[in-house]
Amino acid sequence: MITTLNGIIQKLSTFLDSLCKMVVVPLFGSIVLIFLAQITLRFLFGSSLLWYLDYIRLIYAIALYLTVPIVFKSKQHILLGVIVGKFGGLSKNILITFLHLCTLLFFVFMVYYGYTNTIESVDSKLTTIPISLAWKVAGIPIAGAVMIVHLIPHLIEDYEILIGMSHEDLSYFGRSNEQ
Fold first, then answer.
1. CA distances from 153 to 11, 71, 170 (A)
2. Angstrom distance (rounded) from CA 120 to CA 73
3. Interior angle at CA 12, CA 8 and CA 14, nearest 5
4. If DSSP codes are grouped into helix, strand and coil, which group holds residue 175?
5. Fewest CB atoms within 10 A around its CB: which of 2, 7, 130, 153?
6. Cα(31)–Cα(12) distance, rounded to whole angstroms?
């Protein structure tokens, strides 16, 4: 049952990662194009795009929020490897599981408060573009939900490791690891 669930979540995680990449790359590309257009208009024609700064901020915020799950999925985020590396056996597994649960809690708060802020900012508009500020804030709960999906396989793996430990492993809990 858990293996099937893990397989389904892995496929969903891979799909969401690909989807985030397909959205983020054009968003960052559009930022570069708008900057080039702004520079060209300002220096060659003496005119400027009034809305470019709001657009850049909006797109950058959305792209940034959607980049975080990509980094999390590819495990390029900052790890507590130095701290975790000092432990071994059951202590290490419990610490990793604890860190994953804390991360899950953070992602749940991110989804909840991001959703709340998105709903609260629906009536607010950007300064020069008649777009709701909610579009800028909506990336937070979306990114949090995607990261929860990315984290679930790690939690399943942690569960399987902790359940699979023998009594000999459990008797060493709390003792220093001398390897």
1. 10, 16, 24
2. 30
3. 115
4. coil
5. 130
6. 29
pLDDT at 1: 63
Q: Which helix (H) or strand (E) holds 97?
A: helix 89-120
Cα separation, 66 vs 108, whole angstroms? 16
Ramachandran class of 30: left when φ > 0, alpha when ψ lies in -120 to 50, beta otherwise: alpha
Can you tell me whether residue 165 is helix, strand or coil? coil
pLDDT of residue 136: 84
First-last CA distance in the chain:
36
Angle between helices 52-73 and 139-163 (to 10 degrees): 10
- The dihedral region occupied by 174, where left means phi > 0, alpha psi between -120 and 50, and beta the remainder, is left
> Are residues 86 and 159 in contact, defined by beta-carbon separation less than 8 angstroms?
no
User: pTM (2 decimals)?
Assistant: 0.71
Cα 148 from Cα 112, distance rounded (Å): 12
Residue with tokens 């003792």: 175
Q: Which amino acid is at 107?
A: F
Q: Averaged over 119-134, what is the pLDDT?
A: 87
pLDDT tens string 74-93: 765 555 566 666 777 777 77
Structure tokens at 77: 């985020």
